[in-house]
Fold this protein.
Amino acid sequence: MLTLLIIVILAALIFDYINGFHDAANAIATTVATGAMSFGAAVVIAGIFNFLGAMGGEEVAKTIARGLVESPASVSQLVVLAALIGASAWNLITWWFGIPSSSSHALIGGLAGAVVTHAGMAAFKWSALVAKVLIPLVLSPLVGFTVALFALISLTWLVRRRRPSAVYRQARLWQIVSACTFSYSHGLNDA
């Protein structure tokens, strides 16, 4: 049993590592591409804020651990191992082919498959999957695009009479703030 626990912990660390390089470019791409930060500084800042995010909360982990499975008895160490292997494999496939995907959703899919295989269809909370995962999955981009549109219009209006060089300097600062916020959010959600 101890050997299996060690294997599960190693699989979790491997999944977390894959998750990190799978998503890291998203956090730093803009700041590096525009020259707001060097690559090394962006990686260090992203790592720090990912760590801070990981220490900031565990709501996503609670949803995955308790909110999607009917009974804790349905989740054995083998089920967790299977979920981690499935999620890691999916992350590697999507990374290799450049397909956008979410590591959290990959883990939820791996958990659903492993639980159903181990304990049957009734062992997984399908209504919770819809309410806590699928509806937010559809709504969050719509909300994000709407907020971004209004933010872009507002910012464009605010800087319409300013010199481009002044706007560029401030935009670089806000890109760094955005990268830090993105990294913190990533750590809060995925770690």
Observations:
- The chain has a mean pLDDT of 87.
